[in-house]
Specification:
Blueprint lengths: L10 E3 L3 E3 L1 H11 L3 H4 L1 H6 L9 H13 L8 E12 L7 E14 L4 E11 L5 E12 L1
């Protein structure tokens, strides 16, 4: 979509994606090697009563689901910021995640592009909000 096709209040729903235990441990082993993501026995003794996904993984999955909607297509130039990131609830093995994405700001630029800011609200299959964040990207006009 071109910059001028986005408007404040516009919403999108992404498809869903299941996060398996293997997904969690594979991601954590490479990018966030902490016990709550890797060591099932130690994680059971902790606050979450078991392994949970890394917040960074939840953010990455949320981003992937949004991009897969194809809303930016080839009109996206670059991301400029990711703000107001909140990891609200843990994501457990076998949780199924999806996003509700709302356009919260469009800002005209003088050149051939504009800034579009969307708010991610990521939910699990129990309809619990697990993640929020605002993504701003530069989009062609």
């Amino acid at each position: 979509m071109k910059f001028n096709e986005f408007f404040v209040g516009q919403t999108f729903k992404t498809k869903s994606l299941e996060i398996t235990k293997e997904d969690i441990t594979r991601f954590a082993a490479e990018f966030d090697p902490q016990y709550m993501h890797l060591d099932e026995e130690k994680a059971k003794e902790g606050r979450f009563n078991g392994i949970i996904a890394s917040g960074v993984q939840t953010l990455a999955v949320s981003f992937k689901l949004w991009i897969e909607t194809g809303s930016y297509g080839d009109d996206v130039i670059a991301g400029t910021s990711f703000n107001n990131i909140k990891f609200i609830k843990p994501v457990y093995p076998d949780d199924v995640l999806y996003n509700m994405v709302e356009v919260i700001e469009v800002k005209e630029k003088k050149n051939e592009a504009g800034l579009v800011t969307v708010k991610f609200s990521t939910f699990n299959s129990r309809e619990e909000l697990v993640f929020e964040g605002d993504l701003t990207v530069l989009v062609k006009k």
